[in-house]
Amino acid sequence: RKADPLRIMISGAPASGKGTQCELITKKYGLVHIAAGDLLRAEIAAGSENGKKAKEYMDIGKLVPDEIVVTMVKERLNGPDSQEKGWLLDGYPRSSSQAIALKEFGFQPDLFILLEVPEEILVERVVGRRLDPITGKIYHLKYSPPETEEIATRLTQRFDDTEEKVKLRLQTHHQNVEAVLSMYKDITVKVNGSGSKQEVFAQIDGALTQLEQKQGKLGTVV
Ligand code: AP5
Asked: Residues with beta carbon inside 6 Å of ligand 1?
């Protein structure tokens, strides 16, 4: 057990690469990946009441109400694995009310990563995105094609990954992003998310290594 595991938030517009970077971050740093969107899609797949309600909002690119999302995320953050290994919170908080609730529950991140990607790139990333339902891995028809024919034939597309729906999701993002950023200004690192996924990861990896070194040093001071 690490004495002081990392607590990281990652934010950015729809399809800015949050999920892709989280795959690379968890692989190297062993943090527990908690993605609000994935938790909501799991509720939909389970056919729960919360899932049915959430889908109505996700279909129109709006934020799912706090009464559904806040408890769901809090429970995962409180899980023994997150407490032990540290956490990587993806796509949460997305509003000042969510950020305030987190603070009240005592969840304070060490670093807030903001992925910055020009809007014209985002639409292309969304419409080309595919998911492997077996491994959960994220692909892109052009930028991250599946490794084998077998994987290619089983890939699925998200119901909100159309050009029309991503425009609505972008609008919601623009309405809320400033309020969230203002709460984490002091610990924000802005990352240029328009390069290749390895180029983007190199920037994040640099910031996380630095953070670990800083915390390691602090940890030795008794
Ligand atoms: P969510 O699932 O979080 O969707 P999102 O924020 O729109 O983000 P995405 O998952 O679309 O993109 P990503 O940034 O993870 O990109 P990815 O790595 O896949 O939320 C969905 C909905 O749930 C919301 O609209 C809302 O209704 C609801 N919701 C979620 N959180 C909520 C909250 N906190 N409160 C209330 N409601 C909430 O990459 C995209 C594509 O690009 C992939 O194909 C990938 O292969 C490719 N790609 C990635 N990086 C690169 C690169 N560097 N170069 C080339 N291609 C790349």
From this structure: 12, 14-20, 36-37, 40, 57-58, 61-64, 69, 91-92, 94, 98, 125, 128-129, 138-140, 143-144, 169, 196-197, 200
